[in-house]
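Bumping with the actual sequence this time:
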Amino acid sequence: MVVVMVTYIFNMSKKTYIKVNGDWKEVTNIWRNVSSVWQDEVMSYIKVSGTWKECMVYDSVSANPDYLNYSESGGNQNSNITSSDTWSSSIQSDPDSIINSVTASGSSGDPCTIDVKSNGDMGTKSATVRVTVGSAHDDIDICQDGTMEECG
């Protein structure tokens, strides 16, 4: 089963459609417009074989790219985050303390900027930054002065 979500505004109300097995199905929800941003207020429902059924809402987050390679001089790089809600990031692993800073949080579409220190020609180093939304997470692997295979 392939599910694709599409939303649009129609006559000052918001409707959501999903594609299930090739057929577009309307999902009903109660929406509210808060400061020009549409937000769902209660659980969504979909009509399946004449019966309205509650839709499940899942947390999701994806980092692109999920691998960043830095030269020995370090610097800033971005990974673009797509998420179902506000995301937060944390340093998951940094055994050689190469990370200067990481964007703490953002919204879907915001970049997570990771600043890596110069390693002073001390060889290949690695770290991992985790981006989290609710129960979902995605890791951004960082390699400095080496290849991903060398960073392990």
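The tokens above came from a reply further down the thread. The chain has one helix and 16 strands.
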